[in-house]
Automatic annotation (TrEMBL):
<dbReference type="InterPro" id="IPR007815">
    <property type="entry name" value="Emycin_Estase"/>
</dbReference>
<dbReference type="InterPro" id="IPR052036">
    <property type="entry name" value="Hydrolase/PRTase-associated"/>
</dbReference>
<dbReference type="InterPro" id="IPR014622">
    <property type="entry name" value="UCP036794_erythomycin"/>
</dbReference>
<dbReference type="Pfam" id="PF05139">
    <property type="entry name" value="Erythro_esteras"/>
</dbReference>
<protein>
    <submittedName>
        <fullName>Erythromycin esterase family protein</fullName>
    </submittedName>
</protein>
Length: 438
């Protein structure tokens, strides 16, 4: 928290003088110009349940796709679910009747992260955009996450049963190892804590066999890639769940390494000139080295992508809001509910931005690097899928050196909850999710 009132006032004045009002898609022009020829644009969010974060990321993504030729969107979601949506937006046959049809199948908690009307709108736009493009030019949609152990094994079995009976036996052996736990990673994790046996060898053998045989598979190129990716998910999910029962940063770091490695594979798959848009929480896309995450031994996607690529190739964008409403649960697996998002606490980044004017704004951060005024940690709100608004000041703020965590920042003064598919509104009519045309 920033307690020096004079410095806080100086920051407020600087933000007031140098921020850009954000009212329509046209107001993104300074940011689109800043991106230049970057290949990685990482778009954050301060919660997984805020309407404006999804709609502004959609507005940015559309412009990057149309104006700068970006090839795919990669999100903090499960590979099998997102690959089904990828096939829909790329106009594959038998891929679903509509984006709504596909997204209703996203049933892993927290379902609202991707099964929402805001993503329906994005997916339908992508599907329409892709219709006029050649197969190798269509814009994709992929999941980067590591949680889909059972779903990934099932997808591998379905593919290999038709294409490679011998490899199917290896996959069946791996699946059989997880059967006693119902393919649930948390149950498997508890078992390995009590009994020093694991399924590590089975999933590693499976990945090895698939990688060796990929040149022999003659089905469509992308489905072969997806099968290999599901094998990577199985290996890293097994490792993730086996380590999650112990305290410390290891399981977090396994997950973010997996997401970054997946992004690397996707970039290689799309060719040397590929460009990607990443949608993840601020805690994943903002550089961990500019926060207290580093002190706790945590790395993240933003740090890894920045370290692996030239500086000008990566642009990281943070999001935040001062007050409003949000979708979340009060515990893991809880019913989703709309909650109050309290005003940002005094001295926080959100409070400072509100004090500089109660309006939405875009900030370009690069010119603030090296400015002593910003060479200090300021508390910056992060809301998870499990949220207790009444206690947020005790654990929902990440001390951050703002211009080193992000290259740009989008601030919403008063945000509102997004529109999940699985709770109201739950009809077949899309609610009004875009107050301005993008």
């Amino acid at each position: 928290m920033l307690t020096n009132h004079k410095k806080a006032e100086e920051i407020v004045n600087k933000v007031n003088n140098e921020s850009h009002p954000l009212e329509s898609g046209k107001d993104l022009d300074p940011f689109i110009e800043q991106i230049g020829d970057a290949k990685y644009v990482l778009l954050g969010e301060a919660s997984h349940g805020t309407h404006e974060y999804y709609t502004w990321r959609t507005a940015i993504s559309k412009r990057l796709i149309e104006e700068k030729g970006f090839n795919f969107i990669a999100v903090e979601g499960d590979w099998p679910d997102c690959y089904r949506l990828n096939r829909y937006v790329k106009n594959y046959s038998d891929s679903g009747k509509s984006a709504l049809d596909v997204l209703r199948g996203f049933n892993r908690w927290p379902t609202w992260m991707w099964a929402n009307w805001e993503v329906v709108a994005l997916a339908e736009w992508l599907e329409k955009h892709n219709k006029r493009l050649a197969v190798n030019k269509k814009v994709g949609f992929y999941g980067l996450d590591v949680y889909s152990l059972g779903e990934s094994l099932e997808a591998i079995l379905d593919y290999l049963q038709q294409e490679d009976p011998k490899a199917y036996d290896t996959a069946r052996k791996a699946a059989f190892c997880f059967e006693p736990f119902g393919y649930e990673g948390s149950d498997y994790a508890r078992h390995t804590r009590l009994v020093p046996e694991s399924c590590e060898n089975e999933v590693v053998d499976l990945l090895k066999e698939i990688r060796e045989k990929i040149p022999q598979y003659n089905t469509d190129h992308e489905t072969v890639f997806s099968t290999e990716q599901n094998a990577h998910v199985a290996v890293n999910a097994e490792h993730y769940y086996r380590t999650m029962v112990s305290a410390g940063p290891k399981s977090w770091n396994i997950r973010d390494h997996h997401m970054t490695d997946t992004l690397d594979r996707l970039m290689n798959f799309h060719g040397e000139n590929a460009k990607t848009i990443v949608w993840e929480h601020n805690t994943h896309i903002g550089d961990a080295r500019a926060t207290d995450m580093a002190r706790h031994g945590l790395i993240n996607v933003g740090q890894l992508v920045t370290e692996r690529n030239p500086e000008d190739d990566v642009v990281k964008v943070g999001f935040g809001s001062y007050k409003g409403s949000v979708i979340a649960g009060r515990e893991w697996g809880d019913v989703m509910r709309e909650m109050n998002l309290p005003k940002g606490k005094t001295g926080s980044w959100e409070a400072i931005l509100h004090q500089s004017g109660a309006n939405d704004k875009l900030l370009i951060m690069n010119e603030w690097k090296g400015d002593p005024l910003f060479e200090q940690q300021i508390d910056h709100r992060a809301v998870g899928v499990v949220y207790h608004p009444e206690n947020e000041s005790y654990g929902n703020y990440v001390p951050t050196i703002i211009p080193y965590r992000y290259d740009a920042f989008i601030f919403i003064d008063e945000s509102r909850a997004l529109h999940p598919l699985h709770i109201k509104p739950d009809g077949h009519e899309m609610p009004e999710t875009y107050p301005w045309g993008v």
